[in-house]
Amino acid sequence: MKNLLDNISNPEDLRKLNPEQLPQLAKELREFIIDIIATKEGHLGASLGVVELTIALHYLFDTPNDLLIWDVGHQAYGHKILTGRKNNFYTNRQFGGIAGFPSRSESEFDAFGVGHSSTSISAALGMAIASNLKGETKKQHIAVIGDASIASGMAFEALNHAGVSNANLLIILNDNAIGIDPAVGALKEYLTKVKTDKRLAVQNNIIKALNFDYSGPIDGHDLPKILSELERLKSVKGPKFLHVITTKGKGLQQAEEDQVTYHAPGKFDKISGERIKKEENLYTKYQDVFGETIVELAAKNDKIVGITPAMLTGSSLKFMMEKYPERTFDVGIAEQHAVTLAAGMATQGLVPFCNIYSTFLQRAYDQVIHDVALQNLPVIFCLDRAGLVGEDGATHHGVFDLAYLRCIPNLIIFAPRNEIELRNILYTAQLGLNNPIAIRYPRGIGTIIDWKQPFEKIKIGKGVCLKKGNKIAILSIGTISKNVSEALDLIGNSSNFSHYDIRFVKPLDEKLLHLIFEKYATIFTIEDGTIKGGFGSAILEFASENNYQHKIKTLGIPDNFIEHGSVSRLQMKLGLDAHSLANHFKVLS
User: Fold this and answer.
1) Which of 41, 52, 335, 527 is catalytic?
2) Tens of pLDDT, residues 220-269
């Protein structure tokens, strides 16, 4: 007997089923997702939790004519499978395959490209207003947002606007009490009370107070109930809000019991759900180097505090939360607040380590400039996931930080080439700087087994020479230094090449740069950030300001968005792997 899912390639096929068949389809869709993700990896728990909701939305609404927007997109796997991507879903997040998040360029069913959280309500409201202006008053606009994402400032701004509009907008709150880590904050506590005290859904309701037609909370795994309520809401005019209770990881016991790990569990046994152990690695992740080091520093400096916008586990600030919970602050998905909170703490003599993924600090750019740098407050920004991050793709690559931070006055910018350098700059920063500092480091493992060396203070603005040669100078910044060293090893007789780790993009080590420009006629710059405005641009500016007429070749991320794929595969494509660099160097040697 054929599965129902075998005959479904798009929502039109789905709508041919009887409502009584949909629970069976939900079972098959869960099994399909588990089967693929068990071997190909990806985001698991979020998509399992919204299977029934996904089916109901595509069953009742006329997608893609009706516009469906998923917030973040971790939960959109079922959506992708039901909208023409079932047969190539096995390529999800792989180089050349489909993206891990909804993408307008990938499918007409992906009404809005996502990856960062809390954008869905604003986007859906914009679409709804546009439909009104075009006279398309029957078109439906649906935003699905999680309880962690809706606590973000941007979501509140959109709710505030939508509540006084006449937009045909349906917001569905997918409430599972967890983002990647457990949701935090007063709104989360309110939503928890609503689940247990239904009177709050009628009285003192925050959403109703914002002029929404509120309904719920309802069981997000009860298909008949979801179908009935969505059918009713289709005919309700103006802004509507449906509160749905789901279980992240629904249908896989381990994913339900350990929702943090099974957000993206890696490979696992699809029958038992047990994770497949990876071969033990002797090296340490940069995140753990940060996490262990800040705990060590905090033991001796009681002014140190740690701040993260909803990335306790990913940043390894969870180590400090376990040891010093009163000095560790998970502020939820609120990057702007995290930065200005750190600024406020700094004015009162605390030493704030504000740990934000590089790609997410973009969301707090004004606060970095206006609240930190303008006042020259010594906030320590720890930018995790800098450079290429791999399978999450363009929305998550941290390749713009050097460029967007370099133009800000007062800000020190440092990129360690290895774990010891990261450890030492964290130590140096908490000793007391006269400026804010951004420390950017990559996702993944380092290169040194015994990295827990005694602390050494790093001199601000000082680069180092890693290898001396006589003809060509190679200047690198950050962990891409490893690729440069491997490239020089591949060349064999590399006596023509010198290799310098400049370390500080700001302030530049001008004394060292003058020595380099006076000795070498040809200079390479290597970075894992965008070439436009980045480290290479800083070197070109230095050369121009000092009237140096050298041949300077800048290598890094080109001026386009980079797709998803493993870091090693992407580096090969961009010519930043060791073999490609060796070939670049040979041409000019």
Assistant:
1) 335
2) 999 999 999 999 999 999 999 999 999 888 878 788 788 888 887 888 87
Q: Tell me if residue 248 is catalytic.
A: yes
How would DSSP label each residue in 377-426?
---EEEEES-B---TTGGGT-B-SHHHHHHTSTT-EEE--SSHHHHHHHH
Active site residue 85: no
For 381, phi then psi, to 5°, come to -90, 125
Nearest-angstrom CA–CA distance, 583 and 404: 30
Catalytic (active site) residue 527: no
Strand duo 497-501 + 213-219: pairing: unpaired
Tokens 């690729």 sit on residue: 483
In the three-class reduction of DSSP (H, G, I as helix; E, B as strand; rest coil), residue 211 is classed as coil
Q: Is the pTM of this model over 0.85?
A: yes
Segment 168-226, tens digit of pLDDT: 999 999 988 766 667 777 888 888 787 777 676 666 688 888 889 998 889 999 999 99
The three-state DSSP-derived secondary structure of 101-153 is: CCCCCCCCCCCCCCCCCCCHHHHHHHHHHHHHHCCCCCCCEEEEEECCHHHCH
Contacts of residue 320, Cβ cutoff 8 Å, sequence gap at least 6: 291, 294, 295, 298, 306, 327, 328
Main-chain dihedrals φ then ψ at residue 340, nearest 5 degrees = -75, -30
Candidates 93, 188, 248, 250; catalytic one: 248
Q: Active-site residue among 80, 250, 363, 443?
A: 363
- The full set of domains in the chain, from first to last, is 19-263 (3.40.50.970), 286-440 (3.40.50.970), 464-588 (3.40.50.920)
SS3 170: strand
Contact predicate 286/441, CB 8 Å: yes
